[in-house]
Design a protein that fits this description.
Layout: H1 3-6, H2 14-19, H3 26-30, H4 35-40, H5 44-50, H6 53-64, H7 73-87, H8 92-99, H9 102-109, H10 120-136, H11 138-147, H12 151-157, H13 162-173, H14 183-188, H15 192-198, H16 206-223, H17 230-235, H18 238-248, H19 252-267, H20 285-292, H21 294-302, E1 309-311, E2 314-316, H22 321-334, H23 339-348, H24 350-360, H25 365-379, H26 384-393, H27 396-408, H28 422-436, H29 440-447, H30 450-468, H31 486-494, H32 499-503, H33 509-518, H34 522-533, H35 538-560, H36 565-585
Antiparallel strand pairs: 1-2
Helix pairs in contact: 6-7, 7-10, 10-11, 10-13, 13-16, 16-19, 18-19, 18-20, 19-22, 21-24, 22-25, 25-28, 27-30, 28-29
């Protein structure tokens, strides 16, 4: 209760007027604008009415049942919104009344029995209320969900609804709560993984593929924090991974979103050191089956996927999102750092395929960034054979040299615009130089490569010198050298100080002003004027500036006619005296 209501200082609200009547309906209360305010202030009469089973049932029907086609806007929009706000409000009496009658939860979750597609507005209201109860009464809500037969299959039927998927992810994430322990184990018996896998079938639309990939990715992320997760074991099983790759290689949409799931699983197997002992047969299924598909993915990368298109850089064949996703998959697979996997990349010529794409698509920085990550993973790793294969067999050194020539001049020998990958090549070249310090074969390869040495000593050295130079060629004036006296810095910077006059505490003001102005641009002056106008004492400063300006104007005028400041003061004094004498001679 509010202070004003407690002590009688308030106007009777329309809601209270209705509650004082012998009979009234829920709709009459919902029509009042103050209904939510009265609920939040915990009006006892109102809560007594709202917590009746019949009233709660009607509120749940508003957020779960489709309104009739001829229903008015209140029934379609206002009542469901207010019902959702009331049911999800932080009023303990409402929550207690709902959990005393399980049939109310039946009405709430019966929303999942509807045939898709479902009303997105009602889906958002239903999901919001269920998520609130899951957070507020987790143990009871999860116990109820586990009792419902085929409830996970019903969630999967509405995979296209973002709100329903959000609720499903909240249920999965409840494993991290004390009350939710064991929910992942229960989900393993509900065929959740198998149901989501079937949504990657090429017969499904792209939206279904996207939602299935997102849910599986979130499941992997949540389950990764749990040791020995049985749900993750299902996702990495031979049957699951094999079927997923079948879908991936049969449809572009299935490939894009299916590879997102594979990449999430590969992240769990990334290593900092190279494993030299493992064999392909001993690898986890997710790794061995990924390697087994390298040949097919290489063929996919080499084949144009779209028609040529005209762009600002000419006629090109677009790389496309699907081939870009395959390169991302390669990057994740190489970061697992197994020598047996590296050998397969060399055997299939996958490194050469990747470099072909890099230098073909000169302006695709998304691709350049991924390929740079792959090269850095190899050069900074511990597999010397893979490093040498990249530089020699895949021809990385030769390609960088040729790209530098292409970037320097056009076909007529004239300078041309800098190509889009040149910044990445600078970083890659530095990584090669670093790898040569610890790898004798690469150092030997570089030593015998005359064009590479010429590139490093000229083009690369020039770029490195430019990058090492301070932006603008000097540091800002505020950065005074350590140990330098500030007054001495100001004298050196602005000048205008006369050494003889400085000892006497004087300086030539006009010269100083000229030198000071010469060191600042108009933007600097405007900035200082702006800061001065916006200071805390802006009014006083403005009055002082106006007075000083007036004095300077009078001073210059008197100087122009041969006068002096003292003459000027005397003139004002004489005028004041004359005015006073004239005033005293006037009659009252």
């Amino acid at each position: 209760m509010s202070f004003w209501r407690t002590f009688g200082f308030h106007t009777v609200s329309a809601v209270e007027t209705i509650l004082d009547r012998e009979s009234y309906t829920l709709e009459e209360l919902l029509d009042e604008d103050e209904i939510l305010q009265e609920v939040k202030s915990q009006n006892k009469k109102l809560l007594d009415f709202l917590t009746k089973p019949a009233t709660l049932l009607k509120l749940f029907e508003y957020i779960t049942q489709e309104p009739p086609e001829d229903a008015d806007p209140k029934r379609r929009f206002k009542y469901p919104f207010l019902a959702c706000e009331i049911l999800s409000s932080e009023i303990w009496a409402v929550t207690e009344a709902i959990y005393r009658d399980e049939s109310l939860l039946d009405v709430l979750f019966a929303f999942l029995d509807q045939t898709p597609p479902i009303n997105p507005l009602l889906a958002s209201y239903t999901s919001r209320v269920a998520i609130v109860y899951l957070g507020r009464r987790a143990a009871e809500t999860l116990a109820y969900i586990k009792k419902k037969e085929n409830i996970i299959s019903k969630f999967i039927n509405h995979l296209a609804s973002a709100s329903i998927m959000e609720l499903l992810l909240k249920i999965i994430g409840a494993e991290e709560l004390a009350e939710g322990a064991g929910i992942i184990q229960w989900l393993c018996g509900t065929e959740l993984a198998e149901s989501l896998l079937l949504k990657f079938d090429p017969s499904q639309d792209e939206e279904m593929h996207e939602n299935a990939g997102q849910v599986l990715g979130d499941i992997i992320h949540i389950s990764s924090h749990m040791p020995n997760s049985p749900l993750l074991a299902q996702l990495e099983s031979d049957n699951f991974v094999g079927q997923l790759f079948n879908f991936i290689l049969s449809n572009n949409s299935s490939m894009f979103h299916g590879l997102s799931v594979i990449i999430e699983l590969l992240h769990r197997h990334q290593r900092d050191t190279t494993d030299d002992t493992a064999t392909l047969e001993s690898l986890p299924s997710i790794l061995s089956q990924s390697v087994a598909q390298l040949e097919r993915f290489d063929a996919f990368l080499k084949a144009p996927q779209q028609n040529d298109m005209l762009t600002t850089v000419g006629q090109i064949n677009p790389l496309g999102f699907y081939r870009l996703k395959v390169v991302e998959f390669y990057a994740s697979l190489l970061r697992t750092r197994y020598r047996c996997i590296d050998q397969q990349f060399v055997k299939q010529g996958s490194l050469k395929t990747i470099l072909d794409l890099f230098f073909t698509y000169k302006w695709n920085n998304f691709l350049h960034s991924l390929v740079e990550q792959i090269i850095k993973t190899i050069l900074l790793g511990q597999n010397d054979d893979l490093k040498y294969s990249l530089c020699a067999d895949a021809g990385l050194l030769d390609r960088i040299v040729e790209a530098n020539k292409l970037n320097t001049t056009d076909s007529n020998g004239r300078p041309k615009a800098r190509l889009g990958y040149m910044g990445f090549l600078t970083t890659i070249s530095m990584d090669i130089a670093q790898a040569a310090q610890t790898h004798a074969k690469i150092a030997e390869l570089i030593e015998g490569h005359v064009e590479w040495k010429n590139y490093v000593e000229n083009s690369l050295a020039s770029i490195r010198n430019i990058e090492a130079t301070h932006l603008g060629g000097f540091r800002p004036p505020s950065m005074i050298e350590s140990g330098e006296d500030e007054d001495e810095y100001n004298r050196n910077k602005f000048g205008g100080f006369d050494n003889e006059n400085e000892d006497e505490g004087e300086f030539e003001g006009e010269d100083f002003n000229n030198n000071f102005a010469n060191h600042f641009s108009e933007d600097d002056k405007n900035q200082y004027m702006y800061e001065d106008q916006n200071s805390d004492d802006s009014d006083e400063d403005q009055d002082g500036d106006e007075a000083a300006e007036m004095w300077n104007q009078q001073h210059h005028q008197s100087a122009d006619v041969g006068g002096s400041p003292s003459d000027e003061v005397n003139t004002f004094s004489n005028q004041d005296s004359q005015h006073n004498e004239e005033s005293s001679n006037q009659e009252p």
